[in-house]
Amino acid sequence: MRIVLLGAPGSGKGTQAKLLVERYRIPQISTGDLLRAAVSTGTALGQQAKAAMDSGQLVPDEIVLGMIRERLSLPDADNGFILDGFPRNLSQAEALDRMLEEMGRPLDGVLLIDVDFDILMQRLSGRLTCESCGAVFNSYTKPPRHDGVCDMCGGNLHHRADDNEETISNRLRVYEAQTKPVAGYYESRGALQTVDGEGEIGRIFDSVVASAERLLEGAKTRAAAAP
Ligand code: AP5
């Protein structure tokens, strides 16, 4: 399975991607996580990315594309992958097509997680992430059993630096202007499924799995029809 999870900040891409990893045993490749790791280790690339991330703007394409190419070349991506947060504009989508064509591994399709904008702000301002294992909680919608402590590994929970009101508003504006058109790009070739991302996480996951399976079937049909 080679799919993209598309959706606004806070729509649940990371939450659903982690469940897909458990189900299908393929890696989650999150450009946000890769960039945050580069920022925290202080690499030159991380230093270049930091200002854009802090303000909620997109990091320049050449940085993100280099990172994705390197990550997709690792052996664990041979049997499939879930791209989370990439592509994020039309030029990244076109570059991804070229990259996967060169690798002989075309995308099965894209899953758009649709959530009302009013809900996103609350989800993001309440998000808590484990510093050790990356598990995600929410002080409003999915609180940990003990304040500030991860249920899974006992690690510390923290708020992401870009989950403040001003940066969230910028991220939502950037999504509307630059990332939303990516859905149309895939829809026009019959490779988009939309899932309602509001409600219980497990129920959404059932829809995500059903939609991902439809994308796989569609990709097989397109491949069989190709000359
Ligand atoms: P990135 O890390 O990708 O952040 P994002 O797209 O803003 O998405 P989030 O991680 O905030 O949300 P999510 O959809 O994963 O939601 P989650 O599952 O955590 O990007 C960060 C920055 O990096 C960007 O601003 C940009 O600067 C840069 N960047 C990244 N990729 C780039 C690229 N390709 N090009 C250029 N720049 C790039 O859920 C959110 C919260 O809601 C959690 O607390 C969760 O528990 C809760 N929740 C989830 N589902 C539900 C539900 N059904 N009901 C109730 N609560 C729920």
UniProtKB/TrEMBL annotation:
Species of origin: Thioalkalivibrio denitrificans
Pathway assigned to this chain's UniProt record: Purine metabolism; AMP biosynthesis via salvage pathway; AMP from ADP: step 1/1
Lineage per the UniProt record: Bacteria, Pseudomonadati, Pseudomonadota, Gammaproteobacteria, Chromatiales
GO MF annotation, one: ATP binding
Region NMP, annotated ranges: 30-59
GO CC annotation, single: cytoplasm
GO biological process per UniProt: AMP salvage
Part of the whole protein covered: 1 to 227 of 446
Chemical reaction(s) catalysed: AMP + ATP = 2 ADP
Listed name of the protein: Adenylate kinase
Binding site for ATP: 10-15, 127, 136-137, 199
Residues bound to AMP: 31, 36, 57-59, 85-88, 92, 160, 171
Keyword Zinc: yes
